[in-house]
Fold:
Amino acid sequence: MKIILARHGETDWNLAKRIQGQHDIELNSTGRMQAEQLGKALQKENHNIIKIYSSKQKRAALTAEIANKELNVVCQAIEGLEEMNFGLWEGFTWAELEEKYPVELSEWCNNRRYSKIHKGESYQELVERVLTTLQRIITSETGTILVVTHGAVMMALQSYLNNTPFEEMIKRYGLGNVSTD
Structure:
């Protein structure tokens, strides 16, 4: 079994550098085009993808659906692959957080794995949620699958799997829209 992870296409909130988290933001026109390019690239690379799973959030589910026009396999949005819950920080830009919550942001940045954002989740909780979901997928599939998810999900998984300090995730694993791993 092989899993290819892909981040969703661009949204207007990505452009504005707003924290999307659990907000269900739509793809913009660039994001739709990126999703088409993702499907074409995966088809051209001949990965023999047998199924696509995605987060239920619109930006990931639509990326998966658009990419699937090239792959033509079963495409299923499931719970557990959603973006990190950034709690009260959702909707803010990082610059706005620095002004409004400088102490909390600093504490979170220095202990990113276990710090929990008010009314949100920690990266550790995110990793546990996503790994549980991926385990369910792994037990039900045998071939190559595509999982369309979110930036924080992919960075957290890379940090966890590579035993990298979570405080270094953005520097080491920062991803553009529709990046794959």
Summary: The chain is about 45% helix and 10% strand. The radius of gyration is 16 Å. Residues 2-173 form a domain with the Rossmann fold fold (CATH 3.40.50.1240).
